Automatic annotation (TrEMBL):
InterPro entries in the cross-refs: FAD-dep_OxRdtase_2_FAD-bd, FAD-oxidoreductase_2, FAD/NAD-bd_sf, Succ_DH/fumarate_Rdtase_cat_sf
PANTHER family: 3-OXOSTEROID 1-DEHYDROGENASE (PTHR43400:SF10), FUMARATE REDUCTASE (PTHR43400)
Keyword Oxidoreductase recorded: yes
Gene Ontology biological process terms, A to Z: steroid metabolic process
Domain FAD-dependent oxidoreductase 2 FAD-binding per the UniProt entry, residue ranges: 18-434
Xref: Gene3D superfamilies: FAD/NAD(P)-binding domain (3.50.50.60), Succinate dehydrogenase/fumarate reductase flavoprotein, catalytic domain (3.90.700.10)
Protein name: FAD-dependent oxidoreductase
Organism: Azospirillum lipoferum
SUPFAM superfamilies, per database record: FAD/NAD(P)-binding domain (SSF51905), Succinate dehydrogenase/fumarate reductase flavoprotein, catalytic domain (SSF56425)
Keyword Oxidoreductase: yes
GO molecular function per UniProt: oxidoreductase activity
Cofactors named for this entry: FAD
Length: 469
């Protein structure tokens, strides 16, 4: 339904200076930023309640040089963060795009805290793979649901209009300039709304099986853990308007979704010294590389299943996350005092698990590196009671998308900006390159919040300029 229709002769029911498609973090932040610049804003959300992929995430946003880091004695800078992003993506990400979001994200979080009361704090008790400083920021529950709830509350308190159950099924354009949108309601009725500028904040194409098969075939049959509304509308509209695209095979996977509970299990279970085993009780990879690339690796195991094994110390760290507490409450996290007893609960071979655990103990005691290249130097031993959770690999969201410039305006194939189209979050090309392994933890919410604020500010400025001429 991602159509482009001619705007000539179309009568719009009403016209709004800035229209935002999508009510996730990118859309809400864009709306707040545009509203602050004095622009009239309308957010269009296809669901009955704005949530998006944000609500399914851990709600953690990486940001360098923040006051929360300084209070915790953490040294960091945008340049250091940018270097980490580029290193994880093996140099594939555009340095200008990386610098843009690395510079913008810290001030954006402090703005959300100071202006809208979002109580961020930094996760200072464990590190994520690829980050050279502890720079993950989250709200008290460490859950994406709280993040989107608070952003939605801020938008409502600001008096910004949010229209729910409003599925945008077409754009009206004159050449490459967007003049309005077609909204289809659940009862099939259609409305037409004009706009001065349009911000695409409707994420990528993770929920569109045909596009996933085309661009990310290795995860075509994987559990999709993103929002079902991520149908690639922004990508398809942008392409039809002549937009440039980049890194369409890039994506964020996750190798630790509790199965069959369908709950994200924090990667702290691995970074703090846990491991993953297959149904045969054997390790199969260097888990410490990152959770995104681990998704496809887990899916290659028998039945696409793995077990994440850790201990009570690690579980205590993981409990700061609402998702992990839910997994425990549902009985998804097993506990036993010996490897043999744990194997019985896991219904796997006890001898194999006992041997694997002994090998891990040896590697940790020696500070050695295993055959997969994982170093266990400085890693605390696993001690009883042991914990295990059955997991599978999943696709969370896509990272490729529309190429944008410094003001988050969408660029065409010649690098020139389209007249009034902006993109943020998963609708825009991210900073993770073309592979799952290029995804540095938090890259998704990084571009949602940073580009959302940039897009909202720029779109409001553009329509204000038109009005004053």
């Amino acid at each position: 339904m991602s159509r482009i229709l001619p705007a000539d002769g179309v009568a719009f029911e009403f016209t709004v200076p800035v229209v935002v498609i999508g009510g996730g973090a990118a859309g809400m932040v864009a709306a707040l930023a545009a509203h602050e610049q004095g622009a009239g804003v309308l957010v269009l959300e296809r669901d009955a309640l704005p949530q998006g992929s944000t609500a399914l995430s851990a709600g953690l946003i990486p940001a360098p040089g923040t006051r929360w880091q300084r209070d915790a004695g953490i040294e960091d800078s945008p340049e250091r963060f940018a270097a980490d992003i580029i290193a994880k993506a093996k140099g594939e990400s555009d340095p200008a795009a990386v610098a843009r979001v690395a510079q913008a994200i810290g001030p954006a979080l402090e703005w959300l805290a100071d202006r809208y009361g979002l109580p961020f704090s930094v996760v200072d008790n464990f590190s994520y793979p690829g980050h050279s400083a502890r720079r993950m920021h989250g709200l008290p529950s460490r859950a994406g649901a709280e993040l989107i709830d608070r952003l939605r509350g801020a938008v409502e308190a600001a008096g910004i209009d949010v229209l729910c159950e409003a599925h945008v099924t077409a754009l009206y354009a004159a050449g490459a300039a967007v003049r309005g949108v077609e909204i289809t309601r659940p009862d099939g009725s259609v409305e037409r709304v004009g706009c001065g500028a349009l911000i695409l904040a409707c994420n990528g194409y993770g929920g569109n099986k045909a596009l996933v098969e085309r661009h990310v075939p290795e995860l075509a049959d994987a559990l999709y853990f993103g929002h079902p509304g991520n149908q690639g509308d922004a990508l398809l509209w942008g392409e039809a308007l002549g937009a440039a695209t980049r890194h369409l095979s890039g994506h964020q996977g996750h190798g630790s979704v509790a199965h069959p509970a369908g709950i994200l299990v924090t990667w702290a279970t691995i970074t703090e010294g846990g491991v993953q085993l297959n149904a045969e009780g054997r390790r199969f990879s260097n888990e410490a590389q990152g959770y995104s690339e681990q998704a496809a690796i887990v899916l290659r195991q028998p039945d696409g299943i793995a077990w994440t094994v850790f201990d009570d110390r690690i579980a205590a760290i993981a409990r700061q996350f609402e998702d992990f507490r839910q997994a425990e409450a549902m009985g998804a996290v097993l506990s036993a005092n010996t490897p043999a007893e744990l194997a019985r609960l896991m219904k796997i071979d006890a001898d194999a698990l006992t041997a694997t655990m002994a090998d891990i103990d040896r590697l940790k005691a020696e500070g050695g590196t295993d055959d997969f290249g994982r170093s266990f130097a400085g890693s605390a031993p696993l001690v009883p009671p042991y914990r295990a959770v059955r997991v599978t690999g999943a696709l969370f969201h896509t990272q490729g998308g529309l190429v944008v410039g410094d003001d988050a305006r969408v660029l065409n194939g010649q690098g020139k900006p389209l007249p009034n189209l902006y993109a943020a979050g998963g609708a825009a090309c991210g900073v993770s390159g073309s592979k799952a392994s290029g995804y540095l933890s938090g890259n998704g919410l990084l571009t949602a919040v940073a580009l959302g604020r940039i897009a909202g500010t720029a779109a409001a400025g553009a329509v204000s300029g038109e009005t004053s001429q």
